[in-house]
Structure formats: C-alpha cells, structure tokens
Design goal:
about 130 residues; alpha+beta; 4 helices
C-alpha cells in the first residue's frame, strides 16, 4: 500500500498535544506506514512502507540549533509534560533541540520510539501505548 505525505499530514493535523500521539500512530499504521524518522532541526520526516517504499515531508519550520550536549533527564521531563498535553508540537521540538535530541525513529512493528542525539547515541527507548 502506498501512502502520501498529504494523508499522513491530514492524520497529524488532528494531533494537538502529545496525548493525541497514540491515535495518530494507529491512523498512520492503517495507511501502511511501517517506520518513520523525524529530524528535529526542521521536522522533516522520512516515512517507510512495504516493498522499500519511502517518501519524505518538507521542513515544517525554520532550522533549530541542536545542542551538542544531550541532557536526558531534562528531555524526559519535557517529554512527560508533552505526553500529558502540556506543550504543542513545535514547543516540544524546541525542547528536543535544547536537550540535544537530533531525531527520533518510530518503528510501528515494534511499537517503539527511539530518541537519538547528534552522535547517534540513544537517549531514550520508549514503548508506544496502544489506545
């Protein structure tokens, strides 16, 4: 099944806070997305599907400077707040940049989201809750 960035963005438009993320995940699984990689610097995202299918979104905002030093403890505090609905997506991305998160990779087979710093080190491996 081939999906489009427009279909994914329509599902993402329904996400107002981190609390909406699990439903969004279920919606894009239905579209055929297997994995995606989001880059914090401008929020462009690479999406991967079956049979080596891939597509990429455009940047979503002006470039953010990613800190060279990661701060996992502060990142986790920000993430928990975001997941409770305390921040919008752009605020969360600014917090990721501040705490040294360069990107995250979501694997929809394993239902994991792994956050990475600029060196490629894992900052956090998180299970995605199923609604």
């Amino acid at each position: 099944m081939k999906f489009t960035v427009q279909q994914i963005e329509a599902a993402h438009d329904l996400v107002k806070t981190g609390a909406d993320f699990p439903k969004y995940i279920q919606d894009i699984i239905k579209l055929g997305v297997k994995r995606f990689e989001t880059f914090v610097n401008d929020s462009h995202t690479k999406y991967f599907g079956a049979d080596a299918y891939e597509t990429c979104s455009n940047p979503q905002y002006e470039l953010l400077n990613i800190s060279d030093r990661s701060n996992p403890d502060l990142f986790i505090t920000y993430l928990k707040g975001h997941q409770r609905g305390a921040s919008d997506y752009f605020t969360f991305c600014r917090q990721c940049a501040e705490t040294g998160v360069e990107k995250w990779i979501v694997d929809l087979s394993d239902m994991t989201c792994i956050y990475y710093d600029k060196s490629g080190a894992e900052i956090l491996v998180e299970q995605i809750p199923v609604p």
